[in-house]
Amino acid sequence: MDTRSEIERFLRTGDYDAHGRALPGDVLERERRAHDEFREALAMEVQRRTAGIGVPEKLQGLDVVALTRRKVEPMVRGLFPVSEQGAVLSLLEKSVVFLTPANIAQVLRESSWLSTAWDLANLYLLSVGAELLGPQAPQLLGLSEHTTCYVSLAYFDEAPPFADYLVHEAAHVFHNCKRRTVGLPETRRREWLLDIDFRKRETFAYACEAYSRVLDAGGNRQARIALAEEYAACAAPSDERVSVSEMVELVREAAAARNGWKRILTRCEPVARKVTRPPEMDGAPVSQPRSQ
Questions:
Q1: Rounded to whole angstroms, how far apart are CA atoms 70 and 72?
Q2: Is this model's pTM higher than 0.85 or not?
Q3: Left, alpha or beta for 20 (phi > 0: left; psi -120 to 50: alpha)?
Q4: Which pLDDT tens digit goes with each residue over 34-70?
Q5: Cα 146 to Cα 127, 172, 177, 192, distances in angstroms
Q6: 174 with 79: CB under 8 angstroms?
Q7: How far is CA 51 from CA 47, 124, 167, in A?
Q8: Do 151 and 53 form a contact (C-beta atoms < 8 A)?
Q9: Measured in Å, how far apart are the chain's first and last C-alpha atoms?
Q10: Which of 16, 21, 111, 189 has the fewest CB atoms within 10 Å, measured from its CB?
């Protein structure tokens, strides 16, 4: 198969030969060329499909750092001790990237993995109403890679009342980032910012997302419990990795707790790490964010 055919296959399906065997040169040269040529072709194809689309007015002058901090601060305050909150907030407030006509080409060219670049390309195309690259393209609203959260422009459209995929993607950073990355002490048992069971990572992110909306709209415990019941009536994450009944139970439990964030974390920790905590160790009360 020649180089052009390989590039076309990648653009259409996201599949590719990691060793670039259709390209000339030794192994290292082929891999380098595959890295560069496939990304460049992807960026050019996305730009071709979205020619003439400008940066939306809703993003002009937007302070992304301030928006991100406002969204993630309650979660950080609830999950980390005071001594660590500053470092984690500093990381997260600079972690969010909205994919726009102004930055999409650079993002695709600099993405660590070709598979991630392909997913990001489709995330962006979907957000601007352009044709996706192929019939199997994922229909994503957000995606996390290492400590970066890529978010669709659809974030600013009217969304379901318990949806906030900026918070969802930020929650994934906690299990992707090591403590030493942000200057926090690390031990053999505390390597990552938060230790989340691999099978519970999506559950954790969805629960944080829904609870953030409950917390934002509910000014007191009674109101939060009522909102959790509203969530129970409409909860249906379109993700086979999570159980809707488990999500409902988790959000109900969080809404009734003094610190719902810690309840979510406890339910999503690896089984071997779980210990019985007396009620007074459930964490300090969480400051309520302002309603939007």
A1: 6
A2: no
A3: left
A4: 778 899 999 999 999 999 888 778 788 889 999 999 9
A5: 22, 9, 7, 12
A6: yes
A7: 6, 13, 31
A8: no
A9: 54
A10: 189
